[in-house]
Amino acid sequence: MDVGLNPNLKLQAVANSTLTKKRSTAYGSTVALKSAMAASGAILVLYLIVHMYGNLKVFSGQAAFDGYAHALREIGSPILPESGFLWIFRMVLLASILIHIYSAAVLTIRARKAREQRYVVKKRVQRTYASYTMRWGGVLIALFVVFHILHLTTNDIAPGGKSDSPYERLVNGFQPEFWYVTLFYVLAVIAVGFHLRHGIWSGMATLGVNKASRQGKINAVAVALAVIVTVGFLLPPLAVTFGLVN
Ligand code: HEM
Questions:
Q1: How far apart, in whole angstroms, are the C-alpha atoms of residue 210 and residue 207?
Q2: Which H or E run contains 203?
Q3: Which of 12, 80, 152, 224 could pair covalently with 84 via S-S, beta carbons 3.0-4.6 A apart?
Q4: How many beta carbons lie within 10 A of that of residue 221, not counting itself?
Q5: 3-state SS assignment for residue 105
Q6: Ligand 1 centroid to 20 CA: how many Å?
Q7: What beta strand segments (E) does the chain contain?
Q8: Is any atom of ligand 1 closer than 6 Å to the C-beta of 51?
Q9: Side-chain half-sphere exposure of 120, counting CA atoms within 13 A
């Protein structure tokens, strides 16, 4: 077709190519955002596994638990100052959390806009079970992390009394009379479990690892990791509340 002869067709062709460019840029940045989500999510999953493992040292007694917390502050010494590695690690963790939340928010807004454009008549947007759980579970986990740091790291929230010993902070924090604190932890950790299960699954999809032949295996890995992390995190607070650790 010779668009050069017809100015209307020429305009149309320019508009179409601009739209295609816009769409492919948006597609490109969606892929970038999903990759950023998968990469930051992977760092957070690794952190959770190490943190869960460290928490289980509570069953080996106060010396083992506090020794572990102290050893974390000594990593890199004497090249780095006291807690130097911990602070570098905290920055990486914080950056991962912010990148994870930012990409989730932008992708959610973009998906919502795309749906509104497609349906001229506004229908009630059908939420899938997974997207709903991920979104609100994510919000609950973010609130939990803020509470959790004030509770067991800075100890500004200390219903059972303050302590310099991480072991004592943990034991004080989950005494039976503070059952509501334990309950909040249980709910948050279950939310973490669901988040991990779906997050590992969709992270694998982003990385292109979940070919049809491997889907069964990947699902099994996602479920197993989610269950291990959930149970591992639940054991210490429940053991304290039920008097098995004191
Ligand atoms: C439910 C069982 C959990 C227990 C008993 C627990 C225990 C602790 C303790 C004792 C600390 C302070 C460590 C120290 O000062 O040396 C801590 C820090 C922390 N926890 Fe947990 N935790 C649990 C679950 C979680 C979960 C599910 C998350 C994330 C979703 C999480 C994220 C963090 C973060 C970000 C810190 C701050 C680390 C830092 O000092 O930079 N924890 N936790």
A1: 8
A2: helix 179-206
A3: 80
A4: 14
A5: helix
A6: 47
A7: none
A8: yes
A9: 0
Ligand 1: distance of its center to the CA of 179 in Å? 18
What pTM, to 2 d.p., does this model score?
0.86
> Exposed e or buried b for every residue in 24-59, given b needs 16+ CB within 10 A?
eeeeeebeebbebbbbbbebbbeebeeebeebbbbe
Per residue in 134-190, pLDDT (tens digit) is: 999 999 999 999 999 999 999 999 999 999 999 999 999 999 999 999 999 999 999
Domain 38-241 belongs in CATH node 1.10.287 = no
CA 65, 154, 142, 184 torsion-angle sign: positive
Instruction: Give the closest residue (by CA) to ligand 1 atom 6.
Output: 55
Ligand 1 midpoint to CA 66 (Å): 14
Each domain of the chain, given as residue ranges in start order, spans 38-241
